[in-house]
């Protein structure tokens, strides 16, 4: 059996002198797997994402446990190795995609830079743009000339060029209307299918889980309270926190989940 892409064992994160925010988390993520990370507000989803990206800032600190990336212990990575891993191995798509785009450079220039770095042929930029359903004139625009949904899709195009092994999508559709959210989800799925990357989908939106996730992991106050195949979770959640999420989504969706 090959090593899982990510192997997390007894991972605990604490705010210095304060509470434990992630409490002995243990789970695996296989290459190409689509895992949804669920949990109410403050459950620890974003702290986990920061930890996986080596971006924990004081007062937060890694207290104990291990994270292995393709068998290699991440706590032993140098800052140069973390830097190389972010972007090349692990790519983050988050709620404010504008922050990853340089406001002074055109989208086309930024995508070309990424394509060059990843040694893709010149035509790859337009192919990536087409796959995420963005029209070619977007290449001449700057970040402030794009809607939130378009920026998310530009990030999906970037991931297509970089071909990371893992994409972490942190609430990618939370601030978008339904139609735009659907466009972003299609782009995300097209990118995932084209690259074969694993997807860690952090979300409150169970429609995303139904459409995109194979497995779910539910966090409550920093602890994993449920791990289940997505389909089983959506029909019969086993934990109290999971049941509350499904019930709230059913109520909002008029029972259509
Ligand atoms: N820099 C920090 N210092 C101290 N506590 C923090 C820090 N960042 C997050 N926390 C705490 O960690 C806990 C988990 O926060 P986190 O942002 O991971 O929650 P979340 O599950 O992503 O919630 P949401 O869905 O609302 O984004 C919260 O109690 C939060 O207050």
Write up this protein.
This protein has helices at 45-52, 79-88, 107-117, 124-131, 148-162, 178-195, 206-212, 230-235, 240-252; strands spanning 6-15, 20-29, 34-38, 60-69, 72-73, 90-93, 166-170, 198-202, 215-220, 223-229. It has 257 residues and is α/β, with parallel strands linked by helices. The protein has one domain (6-252): Rossmann fold (3-Layer(aba) Sandwich). Strands 6-7-8-3-9-10 form a six-stranded mixed β-sheet, sandwiched between helices. Strands 2-1-4-5 form a four-stranded antiparallel β-sheet, with helices on one face. Helix 3 runs parallel beside helix 5 (148-162) and helix 4 packs across helix 5 (148-162). The longest helix is centred in the C-terminal third of the chain and has 18 residues, at 178-195. It is globular, with a radius of gyration of 18 Å. The two termini are 35 Å apart. The model has no long low-confidence stretch (mean pLDDT 90). The structure holds adenosine-5'-triphosphate. The site of adenosine-5'-triphosphate (ATP) has 12 residues, from helix 1.
